[in-house]
Design a protein that fits this description.
alpha+beta; 8-stranded parallel β-sheet
Length: 679
C-alpha cells in the first residue's frame, strides 16, 4: 500500500506503509545519497548505552538511516527485521543498506523526515548541501589553564618543544595560544579596526609578534592556533566609530562580559570582523577559537531586542552574519571553533562548537564534560564536532582517565590545558593512551535531553575565573558535595543513569568490534549489563578485555551479560568486545583506549599464522593481547620491532618494541594434535 500522505507539512513528516495478505520474508533496500550513515532515531533510554560509530557499521536494533546530503532521516518500525550487511556500502554514486523483514497484514511503516536537523531539531541554518563541518580529529594544547593571561613567547615556545617531544608522536598536533597575547584595551587605538586589536601582540611578552609565535610552533612540527573574542573594550571606541556599535539613545549599549556591542552590520563586519579573521589566517594560524560569542548574542544583541532596538529576527541574523564573516575571513581550510554554548546561528560557519562552560580540574568541571558530551551527542560530527572544553589532566588521576577516555573514544576536541611540567609519569602515560581522538560520530539522534540538570555546578561548585595568573587547582570532593553537583532527576538511581554507559561501535582496518565504557558521574555499583543494551547481538559470544586494568574479563553474550565492576565517583571502565572466532585473534592493546583503531592497520589469519600490521612509534613498547581460542603458540617474529610473548592466564601478551614507524608481527600457532609437545 502506498502512503496515506504527509503527517505534517512542517516540519515535513511522512509515513509509508508496507503490508501483504500472506506472511512472507522480504528484502527492503534503502538507496540514499553518498555518505549516508546509520542512526538510531532516538536518544539512549534508561540503562541503555549512548551509541557512537566509527565508520558506518550497521548495528542490531538501530532502525534508522540518515542521508546527510539531504538532511533526511529514514526510520522503520512494526515488523521483525535484521540487517543484511555489516556496513553501509556505496556503488554507482549511491549509498545502500538493506534489511530482511517479516511482512504480514500488520504494516511495516517507514518514517520520512526531510530537513530533519534543520526543521525537526531546530538548526535552521544547517545546510549540508552547501557546507559540512570539518570532520578531522583535533588534538592539541591550549595555554589558558596553564598560564591564564601570564603567557609570553618563551612559555609558548617551550611548551611547543616539550609537547612535540612528549606527545607529538602519539597524535598531538595543535598549540593554541589563548587570552593574554593581545594588547588592551580592544582596540588600543579608538579609531583602529578590530583586526589591529588582534594582530598587535603585547610587545613586552611577544616582541616578535605573531610571526614569532607561528614560527616557534611550526619549528616544533605542530600547527599554530589562536584565540580571539567578540569584545570591544576601549571606552573611546563608540565615539570614534559610532556605526560600529549599537546605541540606546545617546549612550552606547553595553553587554555583560563584552562591554560594547558590535553592530554586526555589513559595513562593520567587513571592516572589523572579516578582516580580523583574515589577518590571523595570513599570520599562519590553522586553528582559530572565537570566544564570548554567546555574550554577543544573548547579552548584547538580544539586550537590544529587550530594549526595542532590534527584533528577534534581526538579532539572530546579525549574529549569524558575524559568524559568516569570520568564515569568509578564514577561508575553508582554517578550523573554526565557536565558544561557548550551542547556538544554532553558528551552524554552517563553525567546524566545532563548545558545548559546555569553562572546564577546570575540579570534579564539577570534569563531571560537566562527561554529562554534556552525552547530552549534545546527537549533533556530533553532523551539525558540528562537539568540544567539551579543554581537559585538565592534572586533576585526580581517575577523573583525568575518565575525561580523556570519553573524549578520545567519542572523538571530541581533545585540547589539553595544564602547565607542561605537569605532564610526567602516569599523567603522560594516560594522555598517550588517549591520543589521537577518533573520528567518531553520533550513532543516535533525537531531541535534546532535558530531564537531567544542566550546569548545576555553575558559580556554586568551583567555577571561578581567578583574577591572578595561577591556574585553577584541583580539589577533593566529598560524597555530599558530589551529590549536590549532580542534582536530582528521575533516573538518578538507575543502574546506569544518563551519560554513564556508552557503546562505541568501530569499523576500522577491516575489523568490527565494540568498546563498552562506563563513567561514574556518580558512584556506580557492580552491574550485569545486558549485551543488547550496548547494541550487540546476544546470540553471539564476545571476548571482553578491560583496557585500564589490562585484564581479560572472559566471554560475554549468548545469554551472559557483561559483569561490569563497581566504580567509585569519577572512575571509568573501558572494555573491548570482539566476536569470538575459531582461530587466534587480537582482543586488546595498550596503545590506544579504542583497542585498537589507531595502530592496527590489518589483521589476517592464513590457517596457522596470525599477522598484525601495525603503525608504531620507534623506541616505544606497546602490548597486544591475543586470545588463542584453543590454539597454541609455536613461534613469533616481527619485522620493524623486537618481540616478547608471555602468557597471562587465557591470553597471550605480545609486547612489541618498535624500531621503525611500521611493524609486522607474525604469530604461528598449532592445534594440540598438530604438535608432539606443547609447553
Amino acid at each position: 500500500h502506498g502512503s496515506d500522505g504527509t503527517v505534517a507539512s512542517f516540519p515535513y513528516t511522512q509515513q509509508v506503509y508496507v503490508q501483504v495478505d500472506q506472511p512472507t520474508a522480504a528484502t527492503v533496500e534503502f538507496c540514499l545519497s553518498p555518505g549516508s550513515v546509520p542512526l538510531r532515531p532516538r536518544r539512549a533510554g534508561t540503562n541503555e548505552a549512548v551509541l557512537g560509530l566509527l565508520g558506518r557499521p550497521l548495528i542490531p536494533g538501530v532502525n534508522g538511516l540518515y542521508d546527510v546530503a539531504q538532511d533526511l532521516l529514514v526510520d522503520f518500525h512494526g515488523a521483525d527485521w535484521r540487517w543484511d550487511q555489516t556496513e553501509v556500502t556505496e556503488r554507482d554514486g549511491r549509498a545502500f543498506a538493506s534489511i530482511t523483514v517479516q511482512l504480514s497484514q500488520r504494516p511495516l511503516y517507514i518514517n520520512l523526515r526531510l530537513h530533519y536537523y534543520r526543521d525537526h531539531l531546530g538548526f535552521p541554518r544547517f545546510e549540508p548541501w552547501n557546507r559540512r563541518p570539518d570532520q578531522r580529529a583535533v588534538a592539541g594544547w591550549c595555554s589558558w589553564e596553564a598560564y591564564r593571561r601570564g603567557i609570553d613567547h618563551q612559555k609558548v615556545s617551550d611548551a611547543a618543544k616539550r609537547l612535540a617531544r612528549d606527545l607529538g608522536p602519539w597524535g598531538l598536533r595543535i598549540i593554541q595560544v589563548d587570552d593574554g597575547f593581545q594588547e588592551m584595551p580592544l582596540p588600543v587605538r579608538a579609531d583602529a579596526s578590530l583586526a589591529e586589536a588582534w594582530t598587535d601582540c603585547r610587545p613586552d611578552a611577544f616582541p616578535e609578534g605573531h610571526a614569532g609565535i607561528v614560527a616557534a610552533i611550526r619549528e616544533a612540527g605542530l600547527t599554530p592556533g589562536i584565540w580571539l573574542n567578540a569584545n570591544i573594550t576601549n571606552p573611546a571606541f563608540p565615539a570614534a566609530q559610532p556605526d560600529a556599535v549599537l546605541w540606546d539613545g545617546d549612550a552606547p549599549l553595553e553587554g555583560e562580559w563584552i562591554d560594547f556591542v558590535c553592530s554586526c552590520t555589513p559595513e562593520t563586519l567587513a571592516r572589523h570582523v572579516e578582516t580580523a579573521f583574515a589577518a590571523l589566517r595570513s599570520e599562519g594560524y590553522g586553528y582559530v577559537k572565537v570566544d564570548a560569542i554567546r555574550h554577543l548574542l544573548f547579552d548584547g544583541l538580544h539586550e537590544a531586542v529587550r530594549r526595542g532596538l532590534l527584533t528577534d529576527a534581526e538579532a539572530e541574523d546579525r549574529f549569524s552574519a558575524y559568524m559568516r564573516a569570520a568564515r569568509r575571513g578564514l577561508g575553508e581550510d582554517t578550523y573554526l571553533l565557536a565558544s561557548w554554548g550551542v547556538m544554532s546561528e553558528v551552524v554552517g560557519a563553525a567546524d566545532a562548537c563548545r558545548i559546555a562552560m569553562d572546564a577546570n580540574p575540579t570534579w564539577a568541571g570534569v563531571r560537566m564534560q562527561l554529562v554534556e558530551t552525552a547530552r549534545w551527542w546527537h549533533t556530533h560530527r553532523i551539525v558540528f564536532t562537539n568540544d567539551p572544553d579543554h581537559i585538565c589532566a592534572r586533576t585526580d588521576p581517575a577523573w583525568a582517565r575518565s575525561a580523556l577516555s570519553l573524549v578520545a573514544l567519542s572523538g571530541g576536541l581533545l585540547m589539553l590545558s595544564d602547565p607542561p611540567e605537569a605532564y610526567t609519569g602516569e599523567i603522560l602515560r594516560t594522555i598517550r593512551a588517549c591520543l589521537p581522538p577518533l573520528e567518531t560520530r553520533t550513532g543516535e539522534t533525537g531531541q535534546l535531553r532535558l530531564d537531567v540538570p544542566f550546569y548545576t555546578w555553575t558559580k556554586l561548585h568551583g567555577f571561578a575565573v581567578q583574577s591572578d595568573e595561577r591556574p585553577v587547582r584541583p580539589e577533593p570532593v566529598g560524597a555530599e558535595e558530589a551529590a549536590a553537583i549532580a542534582g536530582v532527576y528521575p533516573s538518578m538511581d538507575d543502574a546506569h543513569p544518563f551519560a554513564t554507559l556508552w557503546g562505541f561501535h568501530l569499523a576500522a582496518a577491516g575489523q568490527r568490534w565494540c568498546v563498552a565504557a562506563r563513567f561514574a558521574t556518580g558512584p556506580l555499583a557492580a552491574a550485569d549489563v545486558p549485551i543488547t543494551a550496548l547494541g550487540l547481538d546476544d546470540a553471539v559470544r564476545y571476548h571482553a578485555f578491560d583496557f585500564w586494568e589490562r585484564a581479560y574479563v572472559g566471554q560475554v553474550g549468548a545469554g551472559r551479560p557483561w559483569p561490569a565492576r563497581e566504580l567509585p565517583l569519577g572512575h571509568c571502565q573501558v572494555v573491548a568486545l570482539r566476536p569470538v572466532t575459531s582461530h587466534p585473534q587480537l582482543i586488546g592493546s595498550t596503545r590506544h583506549v579504542s583497542m585498537d583503531a589507531v595502530s592496527l592497520r590489518h589483521q589476517s589469519w592464513n590457517g596457522r599464522t596470525l599477522s598484525l600490521r601495525l603503525a608504531t612509534i620507534p623506541g616505544v613498547c606497546d602490548t597486544y593481547y591475543v586470545h588463542p581460542n584453543g590454539w597454541y603458540l609455536v613461534e613469533g617474529d616481527a619485522a620493524g620491532a623486537s618481540l616478547e610473548v608471555t602468557s597471562q592466564g587465557e591470553v597471550l601478551a605480545v609486547s612489541v618494541t618498535a624500531t621503525a614507524p611500521a611493524a609486522v608481527v607474525s604469530l604461528v600457532f598449532a592445534r594440540r594434535d598438530d604438535v608432539d609437545d606443547v609447553s
